[in-house]
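Running this now, will post back.
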Amino acid sequence: MNTMVHGVIREPAVPVALNAAQAAEPATLAEPVIAAKPEKKVKRKLSLRPFFLSVLPPLMGIGLLILIWEIIAVKTSSFPSPWVTLQEAIALFSDPFYQKGPNDQGIGWNIYASLKRVALGFGLAAAVGIPLGFLIGRFKFLSGMFNPVISLLKPVSPLAWLPIGLLVFKSAHPAAIWSIFICSIWPMVINTAIGVQRVPQDYMNVARVLNLSEWKIITRILFPSVLPYMLTGVRLAIGTAWLVIVAAEMLTGGVGIGFWVWDEWNNLNVPHIIIAIVVIGLVGLILEQILVAIARAFTYEDVGT
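Update: finished.
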């Protein structure tokens, strides 16, 4: 009996409970730690495709133009080739500011005289056209009064205004400036007026609630909103002004790139005429790009939220 009691006492009760608990718990195994591999630096290959797409097409266009020029020069004996014209250009621009008389001056002085006339006519047109555009766009009465006049005079050829200028001013220089003024004013008037008319009505309602004066409405609301439209009109006007001055100087004479072209034609100097055409195009391109850069600096785009 003692043996039986001793055996019962020796039987462990706790291990049974522990074994049951251990059986209930899932067995967990230690996860092995994997060391992170160092990232390999991927070498990016430089793509020359954007460079070629931006440079190659203009070069091909210029090359095509020179090729057509060369073909015309081969088939027409009196027409200079690109090489002959280049040699004449080098000789011409070696001394662009010579003066041998009032009507015999270098191409540099002629370009300067034309730019000065353009600056005067264009400046006067901006001083009159931009405020007039603000008034036409702001007040319906003025819009109804000036719209028929603008629609009637805007399509008139620039050279048609030159005799009027000669009759009124009795001189070729102010007549050329008058032609530039009357032809470059319309883009500024129209674009400025359209910009004023497209100002959101909510802005004007806020101005009425705040009881702003007309001057503050123009300077605080209209001017910032209209500036991109106004600069577009200015860019179009400068191109028109440069076109007009070349044609006007051919008729009025004196010093200027237009007169220089006509004088070279009278001398049958065709290479100089081609050089003048290229110079006129380059000057017009430079003027336009300057105004485009200014327009981009003051133009904004609405960003959606």
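Residues 98-298 form a domain with the MetI-like fold fold (CATH 1.10.3720.10). More later if anyone needs it.
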